[in-house]
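Throughout our pipeline, every protein is held as a single compact record rather than as scattered files. This encoding replaces a full spatial description with a residue-level series of whole-number codes. The remainder of this section carries one protein's record, kept here as part of the documentation.
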Amino acid sequence: MSVATIARIWRGRVTRERADAYERYLLAEGIPPLRKTALAVQLFREDRVTDTEFVTTSYWPDVAAMSAFTGGDPNVVHHLPRDPEFLIALPERVEVLRIVVDTKV
């Protein structure tokens, strides 16, 4: 069993009115490919007064595995086809972080 050493974090914001629809879209189109290839994936949602932020974190054994999934540079954002329709602004970057401590809950 592989151990996660890398976390890739994507963030996007939508208006509160579009949040439920975008969540359904992410669950149908964005999360399944990650579930098939990443070691694990988490989707977080924070509802604010006027907008909602979604954060997707995927976990990888190494940068090479993540690069194979993204088709190149894992730091490049790969937008879903309908992201321009939903997102307030298209994210320009993702975070790729080395996991230093990993304790189980």
User: Anything to note?
Assistant: Residues 6 and 98 are 5 Å apart (CA to CA).
